[in-house]
């Protein structure tokens, strides 16, 4: 089967959906090709085990080849915006733009700031409401204030949020302004076609020129002819599509992968927090330019995975679920990772935290532990392989002693970057 379009966009997440909308608004005939399924938000369940296979890439089990780092991405129409925490951040343009210009990728500041403003208006961006934030946020902010660390609520793209706390499993109430309920239907209203469940998408080349995209859907092979191909399948998926298509950019495709990744710390308090009741990711503490600290809370299954300890100790801690607050420490890794293909065409992700990355992560964990203890926590438990907990600041040197390699921690990332 062959069809013709002015443009084919591969991927329907934050980039692909906006691209489709903008191109369709200019009168182009646009096709969006998406690997994941199109979901009806009203069928989303408050059930982690039911939603992981529906909305997450590899059911939430995507890891680096050594399995040391989990890389969490969405796989659905709307991409990771369907399962993210609806947090909105503007880049620090004073740092970003000079670095981009030096690398040969200059970006006009005025145009970028205008784009931010337009998107913020379209997605109803505003600060997280303190009334809807989970109660553990108070422990986090109280501790930061006691230490003189600047902290506050993050901006988010929600509209009339109910505070159910299930953002990472799709918003069944359509209060999170994900691409699934904003730019995807807006693009369709302007004539764009969105195809889900598309497998093995490949760009067809004639010499150095792309002529279209070939993919399979419902057992049928489809060739979409187009003069413009836009690859928006994420840092890992885009590399996979390009490599499968024989597009290597002189060997650079798949190189330079890096992540913003880190570890969760769990703090126990005497008072009941009921952290599940309210928005999970709510606030940020500006303790250092070397790492990011954000408050967080998750439903029981994911919470249990990030809770340190083993067997009976872990079981007893889980019985205190209502008394916990959580937060994460993240740092940006060096751009030394790669995406390659195995003999079946599957993406292989190689990435490691360098000694410098781990050192920054340890310092961030120490800062976060101090914040929680100053906020009234009686113990802080990092997501570490070795059972560790801290009830006083004097013991924080143990992190330097016992966290020596990346597999000493349960490290995850929802922010893969680069590679293309």
Describe the structure in your own words.
With 420 residues, the chain is of the alpha+beta class. Helix content is 27%, strand content 25%. The protein is built from eleven helices and 21 strands. The strands form four sheets. Strands 4, 7, 14, 15, 16, 17, 18, 19, 20 and 21 form a ten-stranded mixed sheet that branches. A four-stranded mixed sheet has the order 1-12-11-10. Strands 9-3-2-13 form a four-stranded parallel sheet. Strand 10 and strand 11 form a beta hairpin. Helix 1 runs parallel beside helix 6 and helix 5 packs across helix 10. The chain is globular.
Low-confidence stretches are none
The average pLDDT value, as a whole number, equals 96
- End-to-end separation in angstroms reads 30 Å
Global shape: globular
Range of helix content: 25-40%
Briefly note the structural class of the backbone: alpha+beta
Biggest sheet statistics: 10 strands, mixed
Q: Enumerate how many helices there are, as a single number.
A: 11
Tell me how many strands there are.
21
Rg over C-alpha atoms, rounded to the nearest angstrom: 22 Å
* Share of residues in strands: 25-35%
Oligomer: single chain
Task: Write a brief structural summary.
With 420 residues, the protein is an alpha+beta fold. The protein has helices at residues 14-25, 48-55, 93-102, 109-122, 136-146, 183-189, 234-244, 300-306, 311-318, 355-374, 398-402; strands at residues 2-4, 7-10, 30-33, 69-71, 87-88, 125-127, 151-153, 155-157, 193-195, 198-206, 209-217, 220-225, 228-231, 255-268, 283-285, 292-296, 324-332, 337-341, 347-350, 379-382, 411-417.
